[in-house]
Amino acid sequence: MKNIALCIANYFSNRNGDNLLDSNYVYDNIINNIIPENNLDIFIHSFDIKNKDQILQKYPSVIDYIIEPQIDFNTLLDSDNKKLLELLTNNPDPNGHVSILNTLSMLYSRKQSILLANTYSQSKNKKYDCIIFIRFDIGVRVNCDTEPGYNLCHLLFDINDIDNYVKNDYIVSSYWNQLNAGLSDFWFFSNHNNMLLFAMTYDYVLHYAFKLNSDYLNAFLTNWPDSNKHNEFSNEIINLKHNNTKPEPYTCLINYTANSHYLYKYYFIVSGLYTKCKYKKNKVFY
Question: Residue 1: helix, strand or coil by DSSP?
């Protein structure tokens, strides 16, 4: 029997107005593939107080949760953070929904869900064989069948992945067609130690990335790693396993600085997680 933690975070409601209460995706593709043969503990963090009852109705067996008022992350920014915030306010993300404050909120919520699992495991004097992180809206926000190349929301969790990949120190996320930019962020899973390091993305972004002249920002604007100026969808990190030549990298617009896909990629590089990455599409690993 394996001990597994499922950590869920962010808002139960989303921009698309998806009905997550009626979606059985998480149970059909993750939870029911783990129990009853293995032990599964669920942990939740959210700022979605309005939907607290729905969250607890959907996940009645949750071990521990924090559903709290939205933190004003503006109050946590120092003067260097605020210089970048001002610059991005004048150069907003064209999609209109990615900002420093939104990104910090998202990363903080994910961190807290994993810390709940860690605190509980310490109280029971055990380590989890595997910690899975997911967003509430996994499996419903993007239709993977009609949007080929993305496949960024689908996670059919196979318990054998623990023996084949987690025990070998890999951290797994979804394979999608934009690995040159960064990692898909709907779900991740790995061993206990790697997922604690993953949770610290929030701290790195707040204290180091979201500042003018940070290493992250300089790489973002001048020399984005494992990218291809002439083919943004070439997935260079996969190609490098078969080809030792690196193409000319691309540069990014400052408007997209707060995009979590880029941030995860750079944090994984500086934290040492990047070399441990595997990307899963259905049952195939890359």
Answer: coil
Q: Which residues contact 114 (CB under 8 A, 6 or more apart)?
A: 5, 7, 43, 131, 133, 195, 196, 198, 199
Stretches in the chain below the pLDDT threshold 50 = 144-151
Using the structure block, give the residue that is written with the tokens 């783990």: 34
**Which H or E run includes 119?**
helix 100-123
Amino acid identity of residue 33, one-letter, is: N
The H or E element that residue 109 is part of is: helix 100-123
Decide: 226 and 237 in contact? Cβ < 8 Å. Answer: yes
Q: Is the torsion defined by CA of 220, 109, 92, 85 positive or negative?
A: negative
61 CB contacts (<8 Å, ≥6 apart)?
42
Tell me the two tokens of residue 26.
Answer: 């998480």
In this structure, the number of other CB atoms found within 10 A of the CB of residue 6 comes to 26
Tokens of 273: 């997680």
Which DSSP helix (H) or strand (E) runs through 268? helix 260-271
